[in-house]
Amino acid sequence: MKSRPTAHRFAALASLAASFCACAALSTPAHAAGASAITASHAWVRWLPNNLPAAGYVTLTNTSDKNIDLTDVASPDYGSAMLHQTVSNGSTTNMIMVDKATVPAHGKLTIAPVGYHIMLEEPKRKIAPGDTVHLKLRFSDGETLDTPFAVKSPATAQ
Ligand SMILES: [Cu+2]
Fold first, then answer.
1. Residue 42 domain-assigned?
2. How many CB atoms lie within 10 A of CB 140?
3. What does the record list as coiled-coil region(s) (predicted)?
4. How far is residue 41 from each of residues 18, 96, 97, 133, measured CA to CA in Å?
């Protein structure tokens, strides 16, 4: 994950996020061949105007009998892609950077509004609702999923 905390709207969390991200960057993903245990569905991006960060959402299904972590996200369409989690502390809601999210064995991880999201910043081209962007999702078993995400405006997104 590429850390660009200064570009983030929630600057108060930047130093915390940066320290989390440094740990994640040091871990080297293993590369293993084999059948794909993870499948992605309902992949979409909530686009926002005025260069505000976009958010990627996806449902990940694990057909294996072991927990598998989503450990990294990258995109040819954005300069920065980070896994974030929305957390509520009583009356306030913030988001923090996380270095992994677990897809349980024979289960699903739903990356959806209110829970996790993939924060997307620094678009490398003009991206608008109706476009398709690609995210590379890397997992703890060495698998990488190159996944198309449908770009939607907030008005049409569910
Ligand atoms: Cu975020």
1. yes
2. 18
3. none
4. 30, 24, 23, 14
Q: How far is the CA of 16 from the centre of ligand 1 (A)?
A: 13
In the reported structure, the alpha carbon of residue 8 is separated from the centroid of ligand 1 by a whole-number distance in angstroms of: 8
Domain at 54, CATH number: 2.60.40.1890
34 Cα–ligand 1 center, Å? 32
Q: Is residue 158 part of a domain?
A: no
The rounded Å distance from CA 94 to ligand 1 centre is 9
- Is the residue at 157 inside a domain? no
Q: Which domain holds residue 20?
A: 5-28+36-152
Q: pLDDT tens for residues 28-55?
A: 344 444 568 999 999 999 999 988 999 9
Domain count, the chain: 1
pLDDT digits (tens, 9 = 90+) for 88-126: 888 888 999 999 999 999 999 999 988 999 999 999 999
Q: What residues does the ion ligand 1 have nearby, CB within 5 Å? A: 84, 95, 119
Cα of 84 from ligand 1 centre, angstroms: 5
Contact present, 133 and 127 (Cβ < 8 Å):
yes
Domain assignment present for 87: yes
